[in-house]
Design goal:
The chain is mainly alpha-helical. Helix content is 74%, strand content 0%. It has 15 helices and no strands. The radius of gyration is 21 Å and the shape is globular.
Length: 442
């Protein structure tokens, strides 16, 4: 019975290479959405509400992409057609969103235009992002999955690094970082334009280099997995059928606390450091926009921490220890942020936060895809698993304004709360069953 072969390192990299470009787009969105809408005139207490739309669209789009791509077989492949369409739409919208305040619209109209653009941007990013996770699940065997997702995490964070530093880089080379009230600076606009160009180039590279398995090959791999499960059941007297659902739910609990924490980081970092470092709350001021650029630098430092930690994670023998330790270190970083009043000292907490981010990108999908090995509806399940990412963000965003008021309207307190949430997530890691073979030990 044929099983999935070990893949060369170059193949593992090619499968996820396009993720580098997609993550540039995601990083630009993450680092600049609060800045863009605050510049357009949004109240800080309402900023979190603008963040409801991205995860809401992800919760709708990614299960659909998974469901339909499970049933799609074309000359281009199974997942790749969805990747190509998502990337193409993302490129178009990335050229529109930063111009929301440049068309002479009223504040309300500009925000509406921005929201619609954000909706399409996040829809397309989700459509382009999900196929990469699914291709690893489809093409990589259990032995190599941790390595494959760590490579994906590495490329993801490398893309984030590029996207985060674009605004300050373009400011350094002379592109304006301030604009009339209600307009987004040119440094941000050009960041989105160049990011769009890199995105489509990276996706085209993956499409050219990766050939997905045929339906006949996938059927052979599923049969091999079924035979293995029968042997486990015969040896233990227990079925492995419920194991995937069990892992799905256990990892989902951890995901809830992790993604709620990062939602608050994306929403409130700009306001926090503008207040604590630049002592400015006027969104049209040079200080506030300088803080906005520095957010990109800090998120780039986070990405560096993630890249380096992603190289360390495969060295851990116990995946749960690696996962929990990463979240604890990231939680400590969050708690430190409001107490760092020097812009360079902020490098320390954001570097530590990167450890948690690296684990969040690699560990959950390793655990879940191993549990789903051999399932013909891998894409559908991974699409549904994305809800464990989207729901906590929606809940956190919906409660953001109320929570901010309860914490004395101090945005830095929201980052302390994020640290606490990561700590709770770390404790929940130990509820997870580690791998499908654990059924044989029961």
């Amino acid at each position: 019975m044929k099983t999935k072969p070990d893949l060369r390192l170059s193949t593992l990299i090619n499968i996820s290479f396009g993720f580098f470009g997609v993550q540039i787009a995601y990083a630009l969105q993450s680092a600049n959405i609060s800045r863009i809408f605050a510049t357009l005139g949004a109240d800080p207490h309402n900023l979190s509400y603008f963040w409801i739309l991205p995860p809401l669209m992800g919760m709708v789009v990614q299960p659909l992409v998974g469901y339909f791509s499970d049933k799609t077989w074309t000359r281009m492949g199974r997942r790749i057609p969805y990747l190509l369409v998502g990337a193409a739409v993302a490129v178009l919208v990335m050229c529109m969103l930063p111009n929301a305040g440049s068309f002479g619209l009223t504040v309300a109209a500009a925000m509406t235009f921005g929201l619609i653009s954000l909706m399409f941007l996040d829809t397309s990013i989700n459509m382009a992002m999900q196929p990469f996770k699914m291709m690893v699940g489809d093409m990589v065997n259990e032995k190599q999955k941790a390595k494959a997702y760590s490579i994906q995490s590495f490329l993801c964070n490398a893309g984030s690094l590029v996207g985060y530093i674009f605004p300050i880089l373009f400011t350094w080379i002379g592109i304006k970082n301030i604009a009339p009230a209600g307009e987004v600076p040119d440094s941000v606009k050009w960041s989105f334009y160049i990011g769009a160009a890199i995105l489509i180039g990276c996706v085209i590279y993956t499409i050219a280099k990766v050939k997905e398995y045929t339906p006949a090959q996938m059927a052979e791999f599923r049969e091999a997995t079924k035979e293995e499960d029968k042997k486990i059941a015969a040896a233990t007297g227990k079925s492995t059928g419920n194991y995937a659902l069990k892992v799905f739910m256990q990892v989902g609990i951890v995901q809830f606390f992790c993604w709620a924490a990062f939602m608050y980081m994306w929403t409130y970092t700009n306001g926090t450091i503008a207040d604590t470092v630049w002592h400015s709350t006027d969104t049209a001021s040079e200080g506030y926009q300088a803080a906005g650029n520095w957010v990109g630098v800090l998120f780039a430092v986070q990405a560096i921490g993630s890249v380096l930690w992603a190289l360390v994670l495969p060295m851990f023998k116990n995946i749960k220890v690696a996962y929990a330790l990463s979240l604890v270190i990231g939680g400590i970083g969050f708690v430190m942020v409001p107490y760092c009043t020097n812009q360079y000292l902020l490098f320390v907490p954001y570097f530590l936060i990167g450890f948690a981010w690296a684990a969040m990108l690699a560990m959950p999908f390793t655990l879940v895809t191993n549990a789903l090995e051999g399932n013909p509806r891998m894409g559908t399940y991974l699409g549904l698993f994305n809800c464990t990412i989207c729901i906590p963000q929606i809940v956190a965003a919906a409660l953001g304004g109320v929570t901010l008021k309860a914490l004395n309207s101090v945005q830095g307190n929201m980052l302390i709360l994020a640290g606490v949430l990561l700590g709770v997530g770390a404790l929940c890691v130990f509820l997870i069953s580690e791998k499908r073979k654990a059924a044989a030990k029961a």
